[in-house]
Amino acid sequence: MVNMLFILFYMMCLCVYAVVRAAEYILYGVGMCGMAREAGISGGWMAFVPVARRYLQGRLSGPLTLKGKTLKEPGLWLVLLPFAVGIGSGFLAGLVMALIVAGSLIKTNAIIMIPVTGVVLLTGLAILLLVAAGAVVKNGLRALIDYQILSRYCQGNVLILHIVFSTILPLYEAAVFFYYRHHEILKEV
């Protein structure tokens, strides 16, 4: 009986998660498509394609300028950054596996095994740090892109709250984009 209740609870949680994700996908797509149409950007259909929607988000923001440096295609960076982190961490994971295999083949000599174990641990830590740094950079870039997009529709504390809540709360960014999809642009950037 307890197992059935646990399975039922788990299935209900999965259903709620699926509904929230579907709502987020639809709201985000409709919102971005409307914003692209209002901004005169062709290819609004990309808002409904999982990877292309990040590229469209970057196109909506336009070039980002930070401390005198300009990032001309932030959407391209938003798309390529997870791939670069995946390739880097995959290479390091392959190195770990090669070292583990080499260590198991030379298991008779404990003097050689100690450095291999240390290198494996350090490489595992490097993978963890690379993935964490990639997530921080991706979320920071996404927040900057959202800031530039939403600064056309709102200002001041409302804009800052939108950016903070978009990075913390699920469904918030999609709801904000959906809400502002037909609003008048305050200023041209």
Give a summary of the structure in a few sentences.
The chain is built from six helices and two strands; from the N terminus they run ααββαααα. It is mainly α and 189 residues long. Helix 2 (52-61) crosses helix 4.
Percent strand equals: under 5%
Total E-strand runs = 2
Instruction: Characterize the largest beta sheet: strand count, sense, and whether it forms a barrel.
Output: 2 strands, antiparallel
Overall body shape: globular
Low-confidence stretches: none
Look at the structure and give the mean pLDDT.
Answer: 87
State the order of secondary-structure elements, H for helix, E for strand. HHEEHHHH
The number of helices is: 6
Structural class computed from helices and strand pairing: mainly alpha
For the largest sheet, list the strands in their spatial order: 1-2
Assembly of the depicted chains? single chain
Give me the Rg, rounded.
22 Å
Q: Roughly how many Å apart are the termini?
A: 61 Å
Helix fraction, binned, reads over 70%
